[in-house]
Structures are given as C-alpha cells and as structure tokens.
Design goal:
The chain is mainly α. The protein has four helices and no strands.
Length: 67
C-alpha cells in the first residue's frame, strides 16, 4: 500500500467516505476509480487491525453510499 496521509485512516474510521476518497485522490493523484480501489484495500486492512476504532459496524458502513 502506498503511503497515505494519516487523515485517510481517520476519515475511514470515522465513516467519512467522501473525505477519505478526496484525501486519497489528492495524495496520490489517482482517478476516482483508483481511489475507490485504494479505499477498499485500506478499509479491509483497518477492519482487521483496528476493528474497535470504527464508528459504525461493517453492515452499517456503506449504507446510504451509492456509486
């Protein structure tokens, strides 16, 4: 995984998906589609390493987000 700013993890953990995607795009210069892929990988890494730090359950996380 490329180096991402700490804000990305904070946004993911706090369920701030749009801000996480923007931070990924800004840091890496990637497309939105690439940012979504990076987000997915980092989300899973955080779910495994820091499940207690998430603000919402896995089931609730994507609710209301449509692509």
């Amino acid at each position: 995984m490329e180096d991402l700013p700490e804000s990305v993890d904070r946004y993911i953990l706090d369920h701030r998906i749009v801000l996480a995607l923007k931070a990924i795009k800004d840091a890496s210069g990637c497309t939105l589609h690439e940012a979504i892929d990076i987000f997915g990988v980092r989300y899973e890494e955080l779910r495994r390493a820091r499940p207690q730090d998430f603000q919402v359950s896995r089931e609730e996380y994507g609710r209301g987000v449509h692509s």
